[in-house]
Protein: Pilus assembly protein CpaD
Organism: Hyphomonas hirschiana VP5
Amino acid sequence: MTRHIRSLKTLIALGAGAAAITACASVAPTAVPAAYLETSPLDLNPIKVEKRTEFLEVSIDAYAGELSSSDRARIQDFMRGYVRRGHGPLVLSMPQVSSNPQLAVAAVAEARAIAWDMGVEYQEISGTAHGSGSSVSEPMILAYQSYEAIAPNCPPKSTVDFSNIDSNNQMETLGCSVRTNLAAMIIDPADLLGNRPLDRSDLARREVILEKFRAGESTASERSSQESGAVSSAVQ
């Protein structure tokens, strides 16, 4: 039997090589960033919400006895915006310096009446004055706070390398178009901040549904023949 004796240097070199191979096998190369494990795809392209102030200035005509029809229409449109997306008080500011003080007072009163007709309560209106010491006639000013949804900046699809399969991670553009569409469609961006209080739940109705569920009955509301979703025989 022949015995092969290797030198100490050779054995050390072989051992170092085996250790390096083992290290490579235990720590495989990866393209997973740390943020991938700490966030969700929804965090990649968030919708930002910014607070802004909506203004409307209504000039006071020095020779008019009442507001024009176009000014009334502008005020009505402004009030619709407040009802739909306004937050905080509706500010009606009367000019302290005006070329027609009587009309300035009447304009504020008419704006308040228009707001009331559109469902704005008087306690939601904040009256104030402005323009003290002004050298020119000031307009009537209406204002309220609102929120604006800022869509994420989606990169062009032409700049995205969809053939890159270095990892199985989601791309940075995942959900960006969806978030952009949502930012354009949402009625009141303040809802993204959770500022709107929820209505109280109907406890009696919840008990009825729970009892039907326990009894194995349908929890859907019953419909009459007039409310049926069946297709009419006239079109069959």
